[in-house]
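Let's study today's protein:

:::
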Amino acid sequence: MKGKLKEGADIAVNKCMKVGPKDSVLIISDDDSKDIGMAIRKASLEITDRVRFFNLDLPAYGGRPIPGMPESLVDAIQKSSVTFFVAGAREGELQTLREPLIKLVSQRARHAHMVGITNKIMTTGMCVDYDEVFRITKKLQELLTMASEMHVTSPAGTDFVATLDPGIRWVEDSGIVEKVGEWQNLPSGEVFTAPKTLTGKLVVDGSLGEWIGVKYKDTVNFMETPLEIEITQRNGGSFLKNVYCQNSDLLEDFTNYVNGDPNASRVGELGLGTNIFLKEIIGNILQDEKFPTVHVAFGDPYHAKTGANWSCNHHIDLLMRKCSVVVDGIMIMNKGKYTKEITAKGYEDHKPVVVKD
């Protein structure tokens, strides 16, 4: 495990973030993720001696959840060119810590966002061929940029149609972060946008994001107890209409979350995972949303990246297993597996699979 943890840290530092001798590196971690943070620190120190380590769980910072950005952290970010957030999610910290942090690092640094990272993720999702992830991600982004409609189904009952706005960007998170102001989740491998409309049904049988996903990871089998969500159009957007779940505690937490902000129940993201090296859904959205299937999020549309003209202080990802995806009549994913039009290096030589309704 230690050897593979080192490999994952080396890939994060060298391949993904491209840390160089002139970089000043800041690692923001916590007690649960300290081993991972220290592995990234060690890998960074092999390149540059300007490396700092910040532990969110120290009492001086006010306890978890962090009530606001500590001045010492703000100062450290302002002096850094590469930053890593290597810590767990806590209720409320999206608003008090993570969103302000993203806003600040986007002004001056290259940032790796690794919320909820675990040793298992470091030794699986991080230990992959990111050149290949980059190739597939870029290919899919180019195809979707020209698309107008997407139909998504799954064996569990997901069935929705999304219309796409050419003025809203498809963003590629390929795992390669080279530009100042750019940030990505690590491990990476996805494309996402803010859909113009999304209407139909989600059967969430994979995993959930935010602190809710952490809370129920070990107590709820989403394949047996999924969230079933109906989405409709109102007030110029796509909003949650009804939600059902046999687990009353999960249903209450989720319902309270999507009612916590005027746009928290609005569809803000439609994404497809592109890390084809992942073998299983593990119940951690940081990695699971990179798995080759479909995820939808309620709340913020990552407006700074997508160009959407609205925002929200909430964002929760929902993952559906074994999705099939048809884009403008062409199937690009069949029960969680990309077709040759996406995976083959000479995909233009393959005849697309046209699906007739």
